[in-house]
Write a structure and sequence with these properties.
56% helix; 25 helices; 545 residues; mainly alpha; three-stranded antiparallel sheet
Length: 545
């Protein structure tokens, strides 16, 4: 599965859209040079160019149960059991004619009595074909030359619900359906006028047309595969960030995310493109829904029926109520779908983490992992780690792990405070132990004061200034130079009375990020006089270091 590519403003139709990048990884380097200055190189940043957000997944046993509940997958298992000890098949491995109606009844696709509809037999053949593709049944020939099918070795563990077997079979089935879903809808139209000339020239022209036709089919298939991959990754990201119960996405919204350049309003031309993408995705998403990868309400075909003298529907031309909008299609990625797309991403070499993966080690591993991972939800990782831990001991471990003057030190300390917030008042004894620590004392005192606890000593001047730099540096690392957020922090700095004196103290603070913080203040402060003093102080800090 290819990494998703967002449309960029100014990109021509023939250009590939740029890969999504994380501002926290790139903007800080561009604005302040802080990454390069502290040993975080370009190669580290490039690795994070395609971001896949962490997702929450049920346990594998629960996913396996969901897979077995998918009708088409269940049909394949049932037919493999039906094939025991062996069943006669035709020379192509398909069900023989006399077995097709009984199999349709066995699967509940037709009534127990009466004529079996042709559609039911076709569905039974599809289920048999899937069972063969998954090697749930194996084909062979007897000594008498009879073609037979027997159950494969994976049948029994799959029936017993072995998670590894079931999920491997389901993922293979999903991959097969995904491949079939992107087949070109039709071959290129033939030239009705024919080709004049000799038989040789006609044969040559026919050969060229065949090659052109195959090329067009292949191009159409590649385009469909790329579109489906991008749509699935958008759904994966949307589901990862959605609140529980809000994972359903209107098909028009999904198409717009694929078509409209970020930050733009859709033009009339783009509205037409959105409609085209919806129509292209509609049958493919329907196919994937059969394997439980997603839940899908297809487009109401009446919406696009052209009455005489009327134009076909175009998405986005006028506001729609909820029910009318639903007629344009609704799609929801299931937990099985998240599992499947994540496996495809991992197979293609992308980092596709699970929520809580970084919270499996000790406090040092937790903070280091969160700091160094581009695609992470810090609060979720912290929440998983603190759960079921004794607050005082957990706080003591976190505070010990937060120390250090390396490049990520400020960010570790900020994360530590967030984790202390999750632990609550039970962490107080451990926090009081570090009140005089030169690196932790300032934030420890602020945390205790925020709880409204008594007898919290005021930090001395040196500790207070060091904490200002450390806190600002953490925001630089965390926000990647988000100007709006940084200006809010700058507005709270106690600098207006005597900027020269205040910055005269600040540039002397012995902190690895002092110069970076001063440069950021000089770039972003709205008061020109204060900004100038900050830049002068930054120069002095650089000279000192």
């Amino acid at each position: 599965m290819a990494g998703r590519r967002r449309k960029n403003v100014g990109a021509s139709a023939g250009e590939g859209a740029a890969e999504a990048v994380l501002p926290a990884d790139l903007e800080l380097q561009d604005l302040y040079g802080a990454f390069a200055a502290h040993g975080l190189d370009d190669e580290d940043l490039d690795d994070a160019a395609v971001l896949v957000p962490p997702v929450k997944l049920p346990a594998e046993r629960e996913l396996a149960e969901q897979a077995k509940a998918v009708p088409m997958f269940g049909y394949a298992l049932a037919l493999a059991r039906w094939a025991a000890p062996h069943r006669v098949v035709d020379e192509f491995g398909d069900l023989v004619e006399e077995d097709r109606a009984p199999v349709a009844r066995l699967l509940g696709l037709a009534p127990a009595e009466g004529e079996v509809p042709e559609e039911a037999e076709v569905e039974a053949l599809r289920a048999w074909s899937l069972a063969c593709d998954l090697d749930l049944v194996e084909l062979g020939t007897t000594a008498a030359g009879e073609h037979v099918a027997v159950p494969g070795p994976d049948l029994e563990p799959a029936e017993e619900g072995d998670p590894e077997t079931v999920l491997e079979l389901w993922l293979t089935a999903a991959g097969i359906v995904r491949e079939l879903a992107v087949d070109a809808d039709s071959l290129p139209e033939e030239d009705e006028e024919g080709t004049e000339g000799t038989e040789a020239s006609k044969a040559e022209a026919a050969s060229e047309e065949d090659e052109d036709g195959l090329s067009e089919v292949e191009e159409a298939r590649d385009a469909a595969a790329e579109l489906l991959d991008e749509a699935l990754q958008v759904l994966y990201e949307t589901t990862a960030f959605a609140d529980p119960g809000n994972e359903t996405v209107p098909l028009g919204v999904l198409a717009a995310l694929l078509v409209v350049p970020e930050g733009e309003e859709p033009s009339e031309e783009l509205l037409g493109d959105i409609t085209d993408v919806m129509v292209a995705l509609d049958p493919m998403l329907g196919d994937l829904a059969e394997l439980g990868l997603l839940e899908y309400r297809p487009i109401d075909p009446e919406l696009f029926d052209e009455e005489e003298g009327e134009e076909p529907a175009v998405v986005g031309e006028e506001p729609l109520d909820e029910e009318e909008s639903a007629r344009f299609g609704l799609v929801r990625l299931t937990p099985l779908g998240q599992y499947g797309i994540r496996q495809w991403l991992l197979e293609d070499g992308y980092d596709a983490p699970l929520v809580g993966e970084l919270a499996q080690g000790d406090a040092a591993e937790l903070l280091r992992g969160v700091c160094e991972s581009a695609n992470v939800l810090p609060e979720e990782e912290l929440r998983v780690w603190v759960a079921d831990r004794e607050p005082e001991q957990a706080a003591r471990e976190l505070l010990a792990a937060a120390r250090g003057d390396d490049a990520y030190g400020p960010l570790r300390r900020m994360l530590c405070v967030s984790a202390l917030d999750l632990l609550g008042a039970g962490a107080e004894p451990a926090v009081r132990e570090v009140l005089d620590d030169p690196e932790l004392g300032g934030s420890a005192r602020a945390w205790l004061s925020a709880l409204g606890l008594p007898d919290v000593p005021v930090p001395d001047r040196a500790m207070a200034l060091w904490t200002v730099v450390d806190t600002f540096a953490a925001q630089l690392l965390d926000s990647g130079g988000d100007a709006t957020l940084l200006r809010e922090l700058i507005a709270d700095l106690p600098v207006k009375g005597d900027p020269a004196a205040w910055f005269g103290e600040l540039w002397r603070v012995d902190h690895p990020y002092t110069a970076d913080v001063l440069e950021a203040i000089g770039e972003l402060h709205t008061d020109r006089a204060i900004a100038k003093e900050a830049r002068k102080a930054a120069f002095k800090a650089r000279s000192k270091s």
